[in-house]
Design goal:
The chain is an alpha/beta fold and 396 residues long. The protein contains 15 helices and 8 strands. The protein has helices at residues 6-9, 19-52, 57-69, 96-101, 117-121, 133-145, 202-211, 233-248, 257-269, 285-297, 303-313, 316-325, 345-348, 359-362, 366-395, and strands at residues 72-77, 86-89, 152-154, 166-167, 180-189, 215-221, 225-226, 251-252. Strands 1, 2, 3, 5, 6 and 7 form a 6-stranded mixed sheet that branches. Helix 2 runs antiparallel to helix 3 (57-69). It is globular. It starts with 5 loop residues before the first helix and ends with a helix.
Length: 396
């Protein structure tokens, strides 16, 4: 089964697209701002209670009740296995570790957050300045070896997703610490506003959390998973990822946190779509024929995008050039089975369909990729219409 793309795993915008939902959000905005100010004051008291009381069931209960006033509602199914030292969860929001900390005693290391007051205040376990992966592993092993240490809560995806399409590739370092882990399936929902937008700072996400009417976290503790004999860290991580993905009803993908960062960087550089392309007119038979010719040359381009550009250019060649040059943004679609001849399979590989998986492919210059696309498109066009054009020219 084909894995989802990163555009499906990340929310591109925070607010809903539907006009009705936007209208409701606009009506709610004054109440949301009042809730934010009130909850900011209450949140300071929640922080003080967390600092004063020791880590125990009473403190977790009090903070959980006070968090519900802040609009953070938490439910759980199953129970954590307190005999285990490693919990692994999918990653959805900037306070996932705080939410799970309301249910059981656990510690989350500060992988990217530098040590200091802010790191401590956000509830991370401080292990010194972030260093190499091997240094992090040694620090965590030392922490686990101490008597009375709490279990570690780790997020092997290393970055957040929207949780609706797939899981990022699990980093193997989290599975080198123990031969047994307990997966945690986490789901988050919120009305009208996206739960998280990639690239948004944690303080902005905090504002929208307190602004929203409520945010519901549902935690499901799965059965512990044990390493098989002679199973490597990578295989162990992959097996846990598939199990957790199946539990959530999503796909386990090979997209890494680095791929996610590159995808966000490329998306920021893409020009916004032209307003004239939003509502293309109904295509005439002639326009449909022209669109089909473009589709046969560039099968990965959606027909709706082709129709929109043809409405502006009125020319097959100009539309093909716009698509190849990248002037028209689009999300590639998989070609239907049997739509391409076997002899063309090799040339099709020249057309990039997204972020390349291999490092050598990613190092191709933009000009080289354009030339490959031009060559492939020209070959397809000549194969399909070269003979017809030649015959027409001869008859003239």
């Amino acid at each position: 089964m084909e894995q989802p793309g990163l555009e499906q795993m990340l929310d591109g915008q925070r607010f809903p697209v539907e006009l009705l939902s936007r209208g409701l959000l606009l009506l709610y905005a004054p109440l949301g701002l009042c809730l934010f100010l009130l909850r900011l004051f209450i949140g300071a008291h929640v922080f003080l209670v967390s600092c004063v009381l020791p880590d125990c069931a009473i403190r977790r209960f009090l903070v959980r009740v006070m968090s519900s006033v802040l609009g953070v509602l938490v439910s759980q199914s199953g129970e954590p296995d307190r005999a285990l030292k490693i919990y692994v969860s999918n990653h959805l929001t900037f306070i996932d570790h705080n939410v799970l900390g309301l249910l059981t005693s656990c510690s989350t290391p500060s992988v990217s957050c530098p040590p200091g007051f802010l790191c401590w205040a956000r509830g991370f376990l401080e292990l010194g300045a972030p260093g190499s992966q091997s240094q992090l592993q040694e620090s965590l092993k030392h922490f686990l070896s101490q008597t009375g240490s709490s279990p570690l809560l780790l997020f092997p995806e290393e970055e957040t997703t929207n949780g609706r399409a797939g899981l990022l590739h699990f980093s193997s370092w989290a599975f080198s610490l123990s031969d047994s882990v307990q997966p945690v399936a986490l789901r988050v929902s919120r009305p009208l506003i996206s739960v998280a937008v990639p690239g948004s700072p944690w303080c902005v996400e905090l504002f929208w959390t307190l602004f929203s009417l409520y945010t519901v976290y549902h935690v499901r503790w799965l059965l512990p998973v044990y390493r098989s004999p002679r199973e490597s860290d990578e295989d162990f991580a992959s097996r846990v990822q598939k199990l957790l993905a199946h539990s959530l009803g999503v796909h386990g993908t090979r997209h890494t946190a680095a791929d996610r960062a590159e995808h966000i960087k490329r998306r920021k550089k893409e020009p916004p779509p032209r307003s004239s392309r939003q509502n293309p007119p109904t295509a005439s038979p002639a326009a449909s024929h022209m669109a089909q010719r473009v589709k046969e040359v560039l099968p990965q381009v959606p027909l709706s995008v082709i129709h929109q550009d043809l409405a502006l250019t009125g020319c097959v060649d100009a539309t093909i050039t716009n698509l190849i040059e990248g002037r028209v943004p689009y999300e590639p679609e998989a070609p239907s089975a049997g739509s391409e001849a076997p002899g063309r399979a090799t040339s099709n590989k020249l057309i990039p369909k997204g972020f390349a998986r291999r490092p050598e492919d990613r190092h191709l210059s933009l000009q080289e990729r354009k030339e490959a696309l031009y060559d492939c498109a020209r070959r397809r066009y000549l194969e399909k219409y070269g003979g017809v054009a030649a015959a027409k020219k001869k008859s003239d």
